[in-house]
Model the fold of this input.
Amino acid sequence: MVFLALAFAGSVPAAETNSLGVRGEYHCGPCDRLTVTVFEVEELSGPVAIDGDGLIRLPLIGAVLAGGLTTGQIEARLVELYGANLLQDPQISVAVEEFGSQPVSVLGAVNEPGVLQLQGTRRLLDVIAMAGGLSEQAGERILIRRPGPDDSAPPIEIAVPVKQMLESGTDSQYNPWIRPHDTIHAETAGLVYVLGSVNRPGAFPIKDQEQLTALQAMSLAEGSKETASLQRAQIIRGEGSDKTEITVSIKDVIKGKVPDPILLPNDILYIPDSRIKSATSRGAEAIVQIAVGLVVWRR
Done:
């Protein structure tokens, strides 16, 4: 896989931006559907699709190259062909009925993931907006995966830091141009889980490279219940045989007697109930399963 510097990652030839906010004129391509209207000749008018070779097939004139051309260029070509021997001074208009030649996949932490049509050359922020914007679970980076220049070339991957993209303006190098067939993946933020005797147990993202402490995580979980045993809280860290259980007294943290521990991505902060005996190793496994269930539910 090849990595590109952002300054050059999305460059396109200089062009004016049209009223749709799209760089330059739209060039039609395979899978686009057009509507051809020949004034006062209904038999020659109607919808037509551009095939994989970039051709459209029309009555009387057969196959005509449309791929890579603007609608204005297609109109001029049809006027030339129909006006040669078939029609006197033909008046022809061509419009894009359905876009299909510039797909881009937007995945991950966006509100409406899926395959979108660029309808021209757009920047990353535009495409993220088309996908409903970043979700609350968005992490620190957006990865753009781009096919290589030919089938034998490795794909290119461009990493865009979310914070700089949002703060640097629309023309920034952190807001690169997107190309057809790009795959955009908004990474999910690292999660910490707060479970047990709290008012709103759940999974909470760590955003913008910030550190999240145990007290801050409890605040996100809207605090502990009256029956919580704050002196017997546990941080469950790691997976499988590497899993460790760290006992921490939240009560002592609140009093300033011990430091407020910093949580790592995928940590589980468990606040036991004072009416229940402290968790055994088997209980910790059950807590991990609850956290896994939260991940499945969030998806």
